Structure formats: C-alpha cells, structure tokens
Amino acid sequence: MIRFILNVLWFICGGLPLALGWFFAGLLLAITIVGLPYTAAAWRIAGFALWPFGKEIVRRETGLATGPLGAVLNVIWFILAGWWLALGHLIVAVGEVVTIIGIPFAIKDLQLAQIALSPIGQDVRRVD
C-alpha cells in the first residue's frame, strides 16, 4: 500500500512529465537511426520514471549489450547525454533531501541518475 501511495505522489509531483520526456527522447532516438540502440534504454527508463516504487535497476548478465559493444555504447551515451541527465537528477535529489519528507523521492532520483549515466546493459525489474 505504501508503494502505491508513493507511486501516486511521484506521478502527480512530476513523474508523468519525466516519463513522457524519456519516452519522446526514445522516439527521437529511433527516428535518427543512429540513436536506435538507445531507444529501448530510454523507454526502460521512462517506465521506471513513471512508476518507480517497487522496482529496482539491475545489471543484465547476458546479451549483446553486456559486452564490449555495450561499453562503447555507454561511453558514447555518457558523453552526449548521460552526464547532464544524471546531474539534473542529482540536483533534484538534493532539493528533495532537504525537505526530509522527500527522501524516498530523492532515492529514486539517485537511481534515475545512476541509470542515466550508463543505461545500456541495465534492466528494470519489479521487487516483490
């Protein structure tokens, strides 16, 4: 029940625009063809940003993007977009922590910052 309440509060206080931003970023990446490898990652982040409580970010063990190709794609992502997205989430998290009551939201923003740094080879999984 607490997860549901936190998710509703997150959704109302900015989760929907954040998720839509990640979703549309994924659409733009798909249109460019060059950004196609990042589309799935952007949409994974959008799903996490929409309803983050009860989910966790995990590293994938297998797959094409977990090897050297994934490392190269993450370096390119970090240079072009990852560092400033993570910085934005970090700044918001600091503001949330100051309010004390916003600490659960700050934790989720820090997780978003983590996945924004290197989204390739990571997945979002439900926590029971």
Structural summary, described in words:
The radius of gyration is 15 Å and the shape is globular. The protein has 128 residues and is mainly alpha-helical. The chain starts with a helix and ends with a strand. Helix content is 71%, strand content 8%. The chain has four helices and two strands. The protein has a two-stranded antiparallel sheet.
Break the fold down into its secondary structure elements and pairings.
Layout: H1 2-31, H2 36-50, E1 55-59, H3 68-98, H4 103-117, E2 122-126
Antiparallel strand pairs: 1-2
Descriptive tags:
128 residues, single chain, globular, two-stranded antiparallel sheet, 4 helices, mainly alpha
Overall shape: it is globular
Number of H- or I-type helical stretches: 4
Average of pLDDT: 87
- Over all CA atoms, what is the radius of gyration? 15 Å
Q: What portion of residues belong to β-strands?
A: 5-15%
The run of helices and strands is HHEHHE
Structural class, from secondary structure content?
A: mainly alpha
